[in-house]
Every structure is written in structure tokens, then in C-alpha cells.
Design brief:
It contains no helices and 11 strands. The chain has 111 residues and is mostly beta strands. The strands form 2 sheets. Strands 2, 4, 5, 6, 9, 10 and 11 form a 7-stranded mixed beta sheet that branches. Strands 1-3-8-7 form a 4-stranded antiparallel beta sheet, with no helix packed on it. It is globular.
Length: 111
């Protein structure tokens, strides 16, 4: 059974940083395409970043240059390093692989 468990969310001031983690079980993150999505209140879920098994990354235009997706094979974990956070980054962030989604972790950015 594949499970994805996110952590690392919280309240941060604008301009600050957070690192989200997604611990996987039942799959090997470096062998699968992994993604981070987010959903703000009253908005649709949107893609934030993806990473392929070959390590190719893609980012939403709104986070390019500020967010970095990466994987740790030893910990079987996917990370999302978020720098220079803005109020509009406030959302619930979800880890995804194929049809499997985590429960999400809340990120709130205050001004």
C-alpha cells in the first residue's frame, strides 16, 4: 500500500522560508515521478513542482526561483524548499505520485 505523509508546514512571515517533507512508503521516490500541489481556499488545486525519476524538475511560474523540489533516496522522502514566501503562497500543500495523494500540510504566510 502506497502512502505519502507530508510535514513541515506552519505559520511564517512573508519573506521567510519553510521546508516541506513528504515521506513515502510502498514506493521508491527516486523511481517515480513525484509532485507537490497546493490548494488555497476557494481555489482549485494547482501544480507547484514535479520531479522525474531522472531528476528533471518543473515549476509553476509563480514559484520559479523561490521553490526547489528534491528527493532523498536514503530517507525515501521528497522535499519542497520554499524561500521568499509570499502571502499568496498560503495554501494546503499536497504530495502526489500517480493516483496517490497525501493528506496535506498547511502553509500560512503572514504579512
Amino acid at each position: 500500500q502506497v502512502q505519502l505523509v507530508e510535514s513541515g508546514g506552519g505559520l511564517v512571515q512573508a519573506g521567510g522560508s519553510l521546508r516541506l517533507s513528504c515521506a513515502a512508503s510502498g514506493i521508491t521516490v527516486t523511481f517515480n515521478a513525484m509532485g507537490w500541489y497546493r490548494q488555497a481556499p476557494r481555489k482549485q488545486r494547482e501544480l507547484v513542482a514535479t520531479i522525474t525519476p531522472g531528476g528533471i524538475t518543473t515549476y509553476a511560474d509563480s514559484v520559479k526561483g523561490r521553490f526547489t523540489i528534491s528527493t532523498d533516496n536514503a530517507k525515501n522522502t521528497v522535499y519542497l524548499q520554499m524561500n521568499s514566501l509570499r502571502r499568496e503562497d498560503t495554501a494546503r500543500y499536497y504530495c502526489q505520485s500517480g493516483i496517490v495523494w497525501g493528506q496535506g500540510t498547511q502553509v500560512t504566510v503572514s504579512s
